[in-house]
């Protein structure tokens, strides 16, 4: 019996994916729950497991092909022996030879080829149903009136968000061809779905929001001293290193509570104020930037924040983040300092209204109390949506973050 492999639900607002690669080829033996194919979405890479043990009998979607949620990817012949008979091997080899035209065709779904009774056909036609997508409970898998009425009674799925076509921004004029000597040394690589989506979302944020950036600088002396004093004891007790990010998350949450507009978003003509604090932490990977979300950061301890971020970082680099873990953020922190950036203007992570940019800690001479002293300084950048956040609020927010870092005991005491 053939078991179909279909594109699973990929998460909120994600309706399609691109076939990355198949881990098995047609005719290979597979085990239940073994990864079969890799799907690339605009957020993460998802592995589709085998729904049953058997032999991969057909492949209906090839690498690079775009597929919708629920689309047929292939089929597994359940209970088939791992070794394929020589005659079958010859057929498979012939089927795998490159062809100019067709890709493997999806097999008819149960019920699609079954005759329909007049009553069933009438309901199907009136409600524009696909009989092949409904499981039949009648004799030989035929559809009954109860089957189609149950399908009609199902709540309608939420309307899919119509996103603009995922395509790279096109220049106003065609790209001029390179000289022959240079063209031979160029390599043209198609952008991944993740990279295309990053490009589109960042450009959309620039086109939609009235984006502005304000700057400040923070003296990291006390944070560094506190970290150095307790880092060994912290790691021994909690099993994770004490980094700077937990201090920033705590300082940001404290500032968001005072300036709620930075934690809000615009929805049509409304402003949605969020009385919860889901902080996105930008993580760079080989495939691009992802932003997993530390949920309810205001309720977490320093150790819990560090463990969560450490786990996100590892799984992001291994491509194992779940889509749900990157949705619902209310504010984002981006740390360009790990790459040596001294200053930048981060772009909003829509629909959020604020993003904080961290940068490299660098010793600089500072005038303090009439003397010049050397201090470990960091530039901070807050990009914000001026449609909802006023300049005074943005500057005050950044000052509160600065105060929370220069006097970290405030975060410990919630002051």
Task: Describe the secondary-structure layout.
Elements: E1 2-6, E2 16-22, E3 29-30, E4 35-40, E5 45-49, E6 54-59, E7 66-68, E8 72-78, H1 86-96, H2 118-126, H3 145-153, H4 180-183, H5 193-208, E9 211-219, H6 221-238, H7 245-258, E10 265-267, E11 270-272, E12 279-281, E13 283-285, E14 288-290, E15 293-294, H8 302-317, E16 331-335, E17 354-358, E18 362-368, E19 371-385, H9 391-406, H10 409-413
Helix pairs in contact: 7-8, 7-9
In the CATH hierarchy, what is the class of the largest domain? Alpha Beta
Oligomerization: single chain
Q: What is Rg? A: 27 Å
CATH fold title of the largest domain: Chloramphenicol Acetyltransferase
Looking at this structure, what is the CATH superfamily of the largest domain? Chloramphenicol acetyltransferase-like domain
Secondary-structure element sequence?
EEEEEEEEHHHHHEHHEEEEEEHEEEEHH
Q: What is the count of β-strands?
A: 19
Count of domains: 3
| SS element count, helices | 10
Mean pLDDT: 80
List keywords for this structure.
7-stranded mixed β-sheet, 4-stranded antiparallel β-sheet, 24% strand, Dihydrolipoamide Transferase, OB fold (Dihydrolipoamide Acetyltransferase, E2P), Chloramphenicol Acetyltransferase, alpha+beta, 10 helices, elongated, 415 residues, 3 domains
Task: Report on this structure.
This protein has three domains: 1-107, Beta Barrel (OB fold (Dihydrolipoamide Acetyltransferase, E2P)); 108-155, Irregular (Dihydrolipoamide Transferase); 194-413, Chloramphenicol Acetyltransferase. The protein has helices spanning 86-96, 118-126, 145-153, 180-183, 193-208, 221-238, 245-258, 302-317, 391-406, 409-413; strands at 2-6, 16-22, 29-30, 35-40, 45-49, 54-59, 66-68, 72-78, 211-219, 265-267, 270-272, 279-281, 283-285, 288-290, 293-294, 331-335, 354-358, 362-368, 371-385. The strands form five sheets. Strands 9, 12, 15, 16, 17, 18 and 19 form a seven-stranded mixed sheet that branches. A four-stranded antiparallel sheet has the order 1-8-6-3, with no helix packed on it. A four-stranded antiparallel sheet has the order 5-4-2-7, with no helix packed on it. The chain is built from ten helices and 19 strands. The relative contact order is 0.11. Strand 10 (265-267) and strand 11 (270-272) form a beta hairpin. With 415 residues, it is an alpha+beta fold.
């Amino acid at each position: 019996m053939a078991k179909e492999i279909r594109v699973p639900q990929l998460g909120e607002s994600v309706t399609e994916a691109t076939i990355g690669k198949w881990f098995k080829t047609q005719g290979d033996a597979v085990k239940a729950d073994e990864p079969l194919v890799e799907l690339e979405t605009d957020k993460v890479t998802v592995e589709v497991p085998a729904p049953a043990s058997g032999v991969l009998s057909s492949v209906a979607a090839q690498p690079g092909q775009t597929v919708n949620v629920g689309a047929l990817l292939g089929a597994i012949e359940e209970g088939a022996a791992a070794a394929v008979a020589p005659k079958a091997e010859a057929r498979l080899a012939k089927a795998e030879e490159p062809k100019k035209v067709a890709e493997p065709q999806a097999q008819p779904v149960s019920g699609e080829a079954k005759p329909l009774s007049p009553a069933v056909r009438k309901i199907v036609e009136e409600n524009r149903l696909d009989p092949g997508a409904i499981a039949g409970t009648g004799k030989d898998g035929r559809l009954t009136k109860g089957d189609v009425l149950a399908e009609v009674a199902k709540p309608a799925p939420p309307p899919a968000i119509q996103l603009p076509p995922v395509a790279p921004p096109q220049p106003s004029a065609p790209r001029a061809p390179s000289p022959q000597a240079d063209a031979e040394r160029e390599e043209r690589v198609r952008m991944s779905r993740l990279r295309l989506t990053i490009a589109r979302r960042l450009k959309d944020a620039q086109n939609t929001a009235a984006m502005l950036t304000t700057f400040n600088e923070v003296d990291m002396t006390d944070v560094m001293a506190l970290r150095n004093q307790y880092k060994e004891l912290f790691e021994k007790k909690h099993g994770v290193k004490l980094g700077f990010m937990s201090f920033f998350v705590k300082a940001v949450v404290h500032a968001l509570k005072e300036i709620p507009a930075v934690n809000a978003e615009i929805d049509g003509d409304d402003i949605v104020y969020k009385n919860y604090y889901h902080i996105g932490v930008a993580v760079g990977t080989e495939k691009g930037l992802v932003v997993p979300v530390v949920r309810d950061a205001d309720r977490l301890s320093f150790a819990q924040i560090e463990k969560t971020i450490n786990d996100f970082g590892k799984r992001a680099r291994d491509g194992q983040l779940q889509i749900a873990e990157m949705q619902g953020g209310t504010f984002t922190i981006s740390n360009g300092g790990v790459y040596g950036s001294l200053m930048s203007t981060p772009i909003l992570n829509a629909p959020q209204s604020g993003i904080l940019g961290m940068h490299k800690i660098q010793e600089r001479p500072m005038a303090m109390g009439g003397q010049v002293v050397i201090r470990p300084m960091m530039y901070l950048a807050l990009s914000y949506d001026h449609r909802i956040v006023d300049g005074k609020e943005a500057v005050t927010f950044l000052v509160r973050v600065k105060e929370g870092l220069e006097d970290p005991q405030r975060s410990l005491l919630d002051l």
